[in-house]
Structure formats: structure tokens, C-alpha cells
Design brief:
single chain, 132 residues, alpha+beta, two-stranded antiparallel sheet, 6 strands
Length: 132
């Protein structure tokens, strides 16, 4: 089963708070994420992972009356932002939760675990059988 693990981080004025951390803390945080991705990859559980650009670059897009894209945003005053995600292919929801807990413990500016929220949702491969 595939699950998406979405990492939410505190918002601010349209940028990530990590940009205000000491350089060494940012490096430790990034190293943690690289190590986590390597472990998941070696276990055959990592289907994909990406960090996202700063929230100040986000736009919400809808189709206009003529089908052309209509953009709205940026929303820099939001409480939290989606910072990145993993897609994991694991045998159970419990394993996805364990990986999410590991990711949540990434170090913060003082080296202590951030315990940031990681939303876990199963990736659907199609409509449930009852809808077919």
C-alpha cells in the first residue's frame, strides 16, 4: 500500500522559519532528512519524496469560465505550510505511521526534535470497489 506523508511546518510571513536558523542547525536538519530518505530507499519503501518551495511562491489555481487558469494567492499569513512529502510503499498503515514519527523527530534549531505534524493518507489507486 502506498501512503503520502505530508510534512507541515509553522508558517510566518511567507517563508519557512528554518531560514532563520543557524547554518549548522539547517545542515543537521537536512542531513537528517537525507539519512531518512536513504534508509527508506535501502528498505525499498521510498516511492518518492520532495521538498517544496517557500509558501511565498504558492498559488491556488482554478479553471476560469473559458478553461484558462485563474490564480489566487499568495497566502503568507497561514498558520502552517506544507513543506514537503514522502510517498512510501509499505505493508501497513502502522509502518507508515512509524516512518511519519521518525520524520517528525527531525532536529530543530537547538538540535532537539521538532515533533512537527506529519499527515498520513493512503494513496488511492482508483475508486473503491463499491463505486465500480
Amino acid at each position: 500500500m502506498k501512503y503520502i506523508l505530508m510534512m507541515h511546518v509553522p508558517g510566518g510571513k511567507g517563508d519557512y522559519a528554518i531560514m532563520n536558523w543557524p547554518k549548522e542547525a539547517i545542515q543537521a536538519h537536512i542531513k537528517f532528512m537525507i539519512d531518512l530518505n536513504r534508509k527508506l530507499s535501502e528498505a525499498g519503501e521510498l516511492a518518492g519524496a520532495e521538498g517544496l518551495s517557500a509558501p511565498s511562491q504558492a498559488k491556488v489555481v482554478r479553471a476560469g469560465k473559458d478553461g484558462a487558469p485563474v490564480t489566487d494567492g499568495v497566502f503568507p499569513e497561514s498558520k502552517e505550510f506544507l513543506a514537503g512529502y514522502w510517498i512510501v510503499d509499505v505493508d501497513s498503515a502502522e509502518r507508515a505511521y512509524r516512518i511519519a514519527a521518525d520524520a517528525s523527530a527531525a532536529p530543530g534549531p537547538d538540535g532537539k526534535p521538532l515533533n512537527m505534524p506529519i499527515e498520513v493518507r493512503e494513496v488511492m489507486s482508483g475508486p473503491p470497489p463499491e463505486f465500480l
